[in-house]
Amino acid sequence: MKRFLLIFTIFAALFAYGNDLNDARRRVWNEYKASLPEILPAPMPLDSACGGSWVIPDSLEADAVMDFFFGIKGQAERYPLFIYLHGSGPRDYEWATGLKLASIFDDAPSAYFIPRIPREGEYFRWYQKGKQWAWERLLRAALASDFIDPSRIYLIGISEGGYGSQRLASFYADYLAGAGPMAGGEPLKNAPPENLANTPFSLRTGADDAGFYRNLLTSYTAAALDSLAAADSAGRYALHLVELIPGAGHSIDYRPTPLWLSQFSRNSSPRHLTWEDFEMDGRRRDSFGNLKIISRPEEAEGQRTRYDLNIHDNEISLTVNTVTYTCTERDPHWGIELKFQKEMHPARGGKVKIYLDEQMVDLSRPVRLTVNGQEQFNGLLTPSESTLRESATDFGDPTRLFPAALTTK
Fold first, then answer.
1. Paired sense of beta strands 201-206 and 240-245, if any
2. pTM, to two decimals
């Protein structure tokens, strides 16, 4: 009888909290938004796009200023946002070309953020730490804006921008409704395809584009995503379009990519998530999806950690493995690692916070958590406004305001 009364009392409290949950989310989000600086210009038509610039901290990249165009096409209450990364030619020419391409893409209504790489040369890339600072600044600003649709942010790029957008797509997949590198192709160690679960992905490269093995690496990406899709009954990898375009070299038709991506919206509360926690330019993220790293497991040099989260009927299963890469194919001229074999073993140590919401679990019922097959929690969760605030700070995302959380042991 006492157990029944306890469950009834908690259920009643959860019901009352559920009625107030949207109000609490709005309150928390508005407070978070008020703490952010206004860094995006007011939307203006793309053909008269306003510019702006961000100074990257010297500690990340010296003497680096990211100039950008920002503008809209068509009319909408909230616009899907396309982030376009240009190629490695003379940066002013490439930047202007990006603006022209954005103007002809058939994706209106849409908004475009078109940056110019801060410094040009063979050692400056879109994925480096200084640019990561800019991307995270942009993502939080766009998600907090009143005119960008937070569920429709896309990343595209051409040539060097294709390499960058493929790496960044795996690194920031949880923020994206889709990604579309073009005329690129990265070794998959640099852009683990497993992270693209729930994220539509397009990669289009000319079949004859052999420079830096772009066509070969594109074929490896296609094979990897096809294999992941075939093995995944949840359909998380089904939405990918990787093509080698017959008869084409490095120059291809770029118009299909944004049109294909624009049909998709982001799923912010997936019940199945994979995250290979990899470093990019020596830096790693401390959160992904609904996971927040408290401490990392033990890792030998060169190892990574992979998290596989599955939620079904209030049963939460988290599998944590260390990942070791072995190169199986190497370019004979420059030593570029082209293909790899992965080996995984159960991780030791580490803690991660798992954020949860009412789309993932029924908060009125007990939740069971297992980590690598061992039960770590079985009981009712207590939603709280403090957890909403923590998730707002961790993700800066109005679609990921989580009222409950569990921390692994």
1. parallel
2. 0.94
How many other CB atoms sit within 10 Å of the CB of residue 192?
A: 23
Structure tokens at 17: 């909290």
Strand, helix or coil for residue 41: coil
CATH of domain 46-261: 3.40.50.1820
pLDDT digits (tens, 9 = 90+) for 272-322: 999 999 999 999 999 999 999 999 999 999 999 999 999 999 999 999 999
The boundaries of every CATH 3.40.50.1820 domain in the chain are: 46-261
Distance between CA 392 and CA 116 in Å, rounded?
30
Number of CB atoms found within 10 A of residue 373's CB: 9
pLDDT in tens, 4-54: 334 434 444 444 455 689 999 999 999 999 999 988 999 999 988 778 999
How far is it, in rounded angstroms, from Cα 371 to Cα 324? 20
Answer positive or negative: Cα dihedral of 212, 214, 217, 219: negative
The answer to whether the beta carbons of residues 202 and 180 sit under 8 Å apart is yes
Coil, strand or helix at 322: strand
Q: In angstroms, how far is the first alpha carbon of the chain from the final one?
A: 32
C-beta of residue 232 within 8 angstroms of C-beta of residue 130:
no
Q: Kindly give, in sequence order, each residue whose CB lies less than 8 Å from that of residue 259, ignoring residues fewer than 6 positions away.
A: 105, 106, 107
Cα separation, 170 vs 226, in Å, equals: 16
Sort 172 into a burial class: Cβ within 10 Å, 0-12 / 13-18 / 19+: buried
CA distances from residue 73 to 80, 137, 262, 265, 339 in whole angstroms, order as listed: 10, 23, 14, 19, 41
